[in-house]
Model the fold of this input.
Amino acid sequence: MNKPDNITDNDWRLLNKKYKNITRIVHKIEKGYPVQYLIGDVSFYGYNIMVNKNVLIPRFETETLVEKTIKYLREKTLEDVDVLDIGTGSGCISIALKKELPSLKITAIDISSKAIKIAKKNAKKNNVKINFIHKNIYKYKPVNKYGLIISNPPYLKYNERVDRQVLFEPKKALYAKNNGLEYYEYIIKKASRYLCSKGIIAFEIGYDQGEYLKKYAKSYFPDAIITVEKDLSNKDRYLFIIND
Ligand SMILES: C[S@@+](CC[C@H](N)C(=O)[O-])C[C@H]1O[C@@H](n2cnc3c(N)ncnc32)[C@H](O)[C@@H]1O
Done:
């Protein structure tokens, strides 16, 4: 069978190696089923991360969230703080952070027990220790404060149009109430209980949420440095709240 146009040479080689019945696999891909789920892993920040249909496929944009966060942690000498990763999914953010800054003490939570299972496997595979907890953020009671709270929460509006492949990813990982804003508002509102007086909140956000969230964050953190930053396609994609 010939390689379909929308599959890279490398993915095609991996698929042929993994599956005997490649025709069936090509039909799945033609229906929009993500190639990454079929291959079973992706590279995230240079680390190998297993994925299946229970976790969001890590995105390039999220690698930039990690990169920018590491830069801020270094600048503010916060490389050994307690970290809370909310909605960890495959565990990709926590694993990349811990690999790059091994002194961080990371707790990562997710509402999906199946995601936590994958995240634990990924941590083991990458040889890092992370405290993964199966928990709904709305029920999570922190036992200590965090120097970094990082999250790429669900942020799509329920009526938002998405690519065909995205329809195969877990709904719980994608959509949020209140025009996609519910998790940001909850986390910012509760952050006085969660965040150290010197600490950072790092969010990945939707391209049209920056202006509103910056104002919202300012009302809870009037003295913090709050920035909305762009992704590689020049779209607003990150919100940082830096409490100094
Ligand atoms: C956009 S995905 C991000 C996954 C991963 N952090 C990443 O960047 O690829 C959001 C994650 O939040 C989790 N989630 C959704 N609602 C949650 C809640 N109420 N409490 C905790 N986690 C939640 C989902 O299960 C999903 O894994």
Q: What stands out?
A: The pocket of S-adenosylmethionine is lined by residues 56, 58, 62, 87-90, 92-93, 109-112, 115, 136-138, 152-154, 172-173 (CB under 6 Å). The chain has nine helices and nine strands. The chain has a mean pLDDT of 96.
